[in-house]
Amino acid sequence: MIAPMAPKTRWFALTAGIAFILDKLTKQWILGRLAYGEVEPVVPGWLDWTYVENPGGAFSLFADADPTLRTVFFLGMGGVALILLGVFFTQLDRDAWPAAGALGAVLGGALGNLTDRLTHGAVVDWIDVHITATYIWPTFNVADACIVVGVLLLLGETFLERPEDEPGDSARAEPMV
Length: 177
Hints:
177 residues; mainly alpha; globular
């Protein structure tokens, strides 16, 4: 008989799969819709679809570096990130589904961008958010959003987690009569 899957495993796999599939579908959609560099206003002054490719990292970090070194660096860092996500996942309690879901979102996003690097040589970005009338946030994609949301959820859970009662904790001890 097959043992039931732990809640953390279900949430990890589900969010990783959804993040990866949404990222790939939206990138295929934008590739079929816009030419490179083309801008399509969605909410004028607030949101545009703009197809660009980022050979660098976040905020185009290392975009101008030697292409071979850049590729080796980002594929290596992607591999390290995948290993660390696996290690973090194995450290979670069986029922730690919120953290597992957040890690799954990070994994799905990381896999989405990693597959772009392998298939396009760069990450396909397409979402432009206007912060002010003169500043547009660096173009990003669904994978980037999943990574950021997953990390923010993990940070929130870390800082909002209630410490477990310690043995002999006087705040929880029954009053003596």
